[in-house]
């Protein structure tokens, strides 16, 4: 518990610092300083600049905020969908339950990275960076719900046989009313699922971006910054290229600690 | 249920899932907003009339029934359609790469399971959970595959097998540790240890059989994880496998190739999951 609290505090501090850096007057992730391309750390650019002269610290901070916001939103969508499908499968007619679980099996059988690549590559050529970010996280959310829905289904099934549920049904509560009273009882199951999905989505976005199929430029993303590592000439010029990777690993460790995974 | 009926039901469910996966993937690709886009649309050398003709041709060949028919027909003929990028049957591209990917996956899985099982046996048998085992596992799990592969390449240490094995071992270790730890804490195992029965005997007679069901489920999970790591690893290490082909197809909008690669992966995952379920069912029976 202490570890979780400490991790949550450090994470909150990181987010705060990133927000301050991004909101600082004159700071922009797209601003180019043409006279200092690939510059090392200085007072003007505390973490140096990238190959286009953009401030690395501002870009990393913006990537942190974007990635976390997108992952939290995707995780919320995933958890809500899983709660709906799981509860419907458990409390609906047997055919609905069977169909929902078959659908879960189908989604679980789909290799998510290949599917993400497929959907991303089938986007229009003129997709804007903001849309590409939204679509990336939306697809992650659309593919993330089945495992969570299975867990919810099992939890809801065990709730279905509890004594208070039998009383509720005997008392004449309708299906919708029952589901409304079941959802709060599923929160202890849904909350960990929500928290576990966040680092998974951050990681997925980073891996997708590193393949050049994630969030479009000039929007900053972890994956986009991992691409910098491909440029070996840049690695000899400045060690600050490793900064985004190091921060990403720290953020993922913190997220996993908060989710109780570490 | 009789074993023959049970196996038939399992086979029917597996086939139904495979069919649904194929139909679902095709639908998903067709419904993607840019399916009909063509790189030539961006080329200023094409006149408006030529672009219009390209769009009309794409719409004709991209209608859903046509797409499903050509996809299923391609699979029935055994070539899985024609690659947009190379203009050759998709299976001609996939066949030599399947062996490369299969070898990589097999080596990585064997190494990962050996590492994870050894580490989990040692960590689960100790009296208190040790940071010595859990810290590296947590660190490896927090490292994106692409970053790990790039760093290995830059430092000239380790290859694709090692990167995939480390990633899988970290994930498997976590599950194996919990499964084995639970088995070590069973009252009859504690009793056996208190009586001074040799560790090797306890391990073979009690620990491993108790965890066997979870191990078979974990194997299918390992395959899914390995398939997810396959693309970045093959792309970064330049391994001519299925993952690299799929990435290349994604970058060049060669959807028939990407669709075929996805389906092969989906079929592999389905059979691995179903085989693991079947194995658990038989053990329970």
Beta strand % of chain A: under 5%
Number of helices of chain A: 10
Q: Judging by the overall fold, what is the CATH architecture of the largest domain in chain B?
A: Orthogonal Bundle
Classify the fold: give the CATH topology of the largest domain in chain B: MetI-like fold
Rounded mean pLDDT of chain A is 84
CATH superfamily of the largest domain in chain B: MetI-like
Low-confidence stretches of chain B: none
**Helical content class of chain A:** over 70%
Oligomer: heterodimer
The average pLDDT score of chain B comes to 79
Give the largest interface.
A-B, 44 and 54 residues
Q: Tell me the radius of gyration of chain B.
A: 24 Å
Structural class of chain B: mainly alpha
Helix and strand content put the structural class of chain A at mainly alpha
CATH class of the largest domain in chain B: Mainly Alpha
Percentage of residues assigned to helices of chain B: over 70%
Question: How many structural domains of chain B?
Answer: 2
Share of residues in strands of chain B: under 5%
The tally of strands of chain A reads: 0
Poorly predicted parts of chain A: none
Write the layout of secondary structure elements.
The complex is a heterodimer of chains A (262) and B (285).
Chain A lengths: L1 H22 L32 H36 L2 H16 L2 H10 L7 H32 L2 H8 L4 H36 L11 H5 L5 H6 L5 H16 L4
Helix pairs in contact in A: 1-2, 1-10, 2-3, 2-5, 2-7, 3-5, 4-5, 5-7, 7-10
Chain B lengths: L2 H29 L16 H14 L2 H14 L12 H36 L5 H11 L3 H11 L4 H25 L2 H8 L4 H38 L5 H10 L3 H30 L1
Helix pairs in contact in B: 1-3, 1-11, 4-7, 4-9, 4-11, 5-7, 6-7, 6-9, 7-9, 9-10, 9-11, 10-11
Provide key terms for this protein.
heterodimer, A: 262 residues, mainly alpha, 71% helix, B: 285 residues, MetI-like fold, 2 domains, 11 helices, 79% helix, 0% strand, elongated
């Amino acid at each position: 518990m202490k570890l979780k609290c400490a991790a949550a505090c450090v994470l909150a501090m990181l987010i705060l610092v990133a927000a301050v850096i991004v909101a600082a007057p004159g700071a922009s992730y797209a601003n180019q300083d043409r006279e200092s391309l690939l510059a090392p750390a200085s007072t003007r650019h505390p973490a140096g600049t990238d190959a286009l002269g953009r401030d690395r610290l501002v870009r990393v901070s913006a990537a942190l905020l974007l990635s976390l916001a997108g992952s939290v939103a995707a995780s919320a969508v995933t958890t809500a969908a899983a709660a709906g499908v799981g509860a419907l499968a458990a409390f609906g007619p047997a055919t609905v339950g069977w169909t929902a679980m078959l659908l879960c099996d189908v989604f679980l059988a789909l290799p998510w990275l290949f599917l993400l690549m497929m959907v991303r590559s089938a986007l229009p050529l003129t997709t804007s960076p903001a849309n590409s970010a939204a679509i990336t996280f939306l697809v992650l959310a659309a593919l993330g719900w089945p495992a969570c829905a299975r867990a919810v289904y099992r939890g809801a099934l065990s709730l279905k046989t509890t004594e208070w549920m039998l009383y509720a049904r005997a008392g004449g509560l309708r299906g919708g009313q029952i589901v409304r009273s079941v959802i709060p009882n599923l929160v202890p199951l849904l909350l960990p699922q929500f928290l576990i999905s966040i680092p998974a989505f951050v990681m997925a976005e980073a891996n997708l971006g590193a393949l050049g199929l994630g969030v479009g430029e000039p929007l900053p993303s972890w994956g986009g910054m991992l691409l910098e590592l491909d440029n070996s000439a840049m690695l000899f010029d400045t060690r600050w290229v490793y900064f985004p990777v190091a921060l990403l690993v720290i953020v993922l460790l913190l997220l996993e600690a908060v989710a109780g995974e570490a | 249920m009789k074993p023959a009926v049970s196996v038939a039901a399992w086979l029917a469910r597996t086939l139904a899932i495979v069919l649904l996966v194929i139909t679902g993937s095709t639908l998903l690709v067709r419904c993607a907003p840019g399916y009909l886009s063509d790189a030539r649309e961006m080329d200023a050398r094409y006149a408006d009339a030529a672009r219009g003709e390209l769009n009309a041709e794409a719409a004709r060949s991209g209608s859903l029934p046509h797409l499903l028919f050509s996809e299923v027909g391609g699979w029935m003929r055994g070539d899985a359609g024609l690659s947009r990028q190379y203009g050759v049957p998709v299976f001609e591209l996939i066949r030599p790469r399947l062996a490369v990917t299969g070898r990589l996956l097999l080596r990585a899985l064997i190494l990962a399971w050996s590492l994870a099982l050894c580490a989990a046996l040692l960590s689960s048998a100790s009296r208190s959970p040790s940071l010595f085992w859990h810290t590296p596992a947590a660190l490896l799990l927090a490292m994106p595959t692409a970053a790990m592969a790039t760093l290995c390449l830059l430092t000239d240490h380790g290859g694709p097998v090692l990167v995939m094995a480390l990633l899988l071992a970290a994930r498997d270790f976590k599950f194996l540790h919990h499964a084995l730890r639970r088995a070590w804490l069973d009252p009859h195992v504690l009793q056996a240890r208190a009586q001074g029965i040799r560790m090797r005997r306890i391990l073979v007679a009690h620990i491993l059989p108790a965890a066997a069901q979870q191990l078979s489920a974990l194997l299918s999970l390992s395959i899914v994880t390995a398939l997810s790591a396959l693309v970045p690893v093959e792309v970064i290490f330049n391994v001519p496998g299925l993952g690299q082909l799929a990435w290349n197809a994604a970058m060049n909008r060669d959807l028939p190739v990407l669709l075929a690669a996805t389906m092969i992966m989906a079929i592999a995952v389905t059979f691995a999951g179903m085989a693991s379920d079947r194995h658990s069912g038989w053990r329970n029976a």
